[in-house]
Amino acid sequence: MGLLSAGAKTIGARPRYPSAVDPQRWQRVCDLFEAARELRGAAREAVLASAPEVRADVEELLEHHEAERGALSTDEMASDIGKQIGPYRIDALLGEGGMAHVYRAEGPDGPVALKRLRPELCREAVVVERFRREAEIGRGIRHANVVRTLDLIGADTLVLEYVAGRTLAQRIEGSGPVGEDECRHVAREILRALVAIHDAGAVHRDLKPSNVMLTLGGGVRLMDLGIALPLEDLLRLSRTGQFVGTVRYAAPEQLTGAKAPPDPRTDLYALGLLIYELAAGRHPIPDGGMVSIMRAHLDEDPEPLGSVNPEVTPFLATLTHALLAKEPAGRPASAAAVLAILEQGEDAAWWREQQLSHPGP
């Protein structure tokens, strides 16, 4: 008997439990469904291949979920264009994710971006609370390198600063290694954003290329605080063993439950992954199933960046691997400290210490 005929439902943030299915098997199916539903192509195949014993069930739920969501999305997008939301009139779709659509809209003071929660998710208390928290954290951060949160209209529409440009994911797709000057520039600008977020008492927890905007004028803006959390909430959440984020860009402590709660150094690990990906032209962790990706984060050191791209300077390669330390205590102490190192470059005291403690041949 298939899961759908057993009573499983997929509309909402998580499939609903069908009583006729073994609870442990259902938990495994849900975990794989959550990991795979926003992936496509080889990335989704890798997740599905990691659990052949429940693959057919997960594929059945994914097919049903996408059929329902596709029908809803078509109607939503068609009906929202031209709609008036408060003082804003929607005129274009900018993007679509598993949680929300993002639109361009015109307002009294010019264009804004409207992030609208999917209607079927408005019934999910956890999702609505996450959306409210994103607004609360965002409104408390005012920095040139962070996309500004302007307002929350009702419970389902977040008003954001409109930024013209493209994401870092679009920039690096199929581009090969990025020059070191650009790597250092992007890293410095992201660090400025992280300093502001950490100074506000929060941790981003989902730093990845698709959450970094490159503006038309060459600026860098960090966006999507949807899973950012205040530090006191992180300490509580870590005790539940719950993971929220993107596994490919997760720090080891995000994957180990209560062993070590995430802190600002969690974002530094993700930055190390980004710098490596920019400089090497590929992610430091090879494509594979979710289990192999998690194992690599926890136990395996990436190939030395200088070996992958010999044109990378020893300074940048050493700093990148310092950010990728498995234990938070092995990474630099803060985003502000890393920013100072990058601004000073090879003149930084940190680099002189590295050369003394690890002299070359």
Number of strands: 11
So, the CATH homologous superfamily of the largest domain? Transferase(Phosphotransferase) domain 1
Task: Output the strand order for the largest sheet.
Answer: 1-2-3-4-6-5
Percent of residues in beta strands:
5-15%
Task: Give the end-to-end Cα distance, rounded to a whole number of Å.
Answer: 65 Å
* Mean residue pLDDT: 81
H/I helix tally: 13
Category by helix and strand content: alpha+beta
Work out the count of structural domains. Answer: 3
Q: Element order, helices and strands?
A: HHHEEEEHEEEHHEEEEHHHHHHH
Shape: globular
Largest sheet: 6 strands, antiparallel
User: Class of the largest domain in CATH?
Assistant: Mainly Alpha
Provide the fold topology.
Layout: H1 23-36, H2 41-49, H3 55-80, E1 84-85, E2 88-96, E3 100-107, E4 110-117, H4 125-139, E5 149-153, E6 157-161, E7 165-167, H5 168-172, H6 180-199, E8 202-203, E9 212-215, E10 220-222, E11 229-230, H7 231-238, H8 264-280, H9 290-299, H10 305-308, H11 314-323, H12 335-344, H13 349-357
Could you describe the 3D structure shown?
By secondary structure, the protein is an alpha+beta fold. The chain has three domains: 9-60, no CATH class; 77-161, Phosphorylase Kinase, domain 1, CATH 3.30.200; 165-357, Transferase(Phosphotransferase) domain 1 (Transferase(Phosphotransferase), domain 1, Orthogonal Bundle). Helices cover 43% and strands 14% of the residues. It is built from 13 helices and eleven strands. The protein has helices at residues 23-36, 41-49, 55-80, 125-139, 168-172, 180-199, 231-238, 264-280, 290-299, 305-308, 314-323, 335-344, 349-357; strands spanning 84-85, 88-96, 100-107, 110-117, 149-153, 157-161, 165-167, 202-203, 212-215, 220-222, 229-230. The protein has a six-stranded antiparallel β-sheet, covered by helices on one side. A hairpin with a 3-residue loop joins strand 2 and strand 3 (100-107). It is globular and about 65 Å long. The model is unreliable at 1-19 and 230-243 (pLDDT under 50).
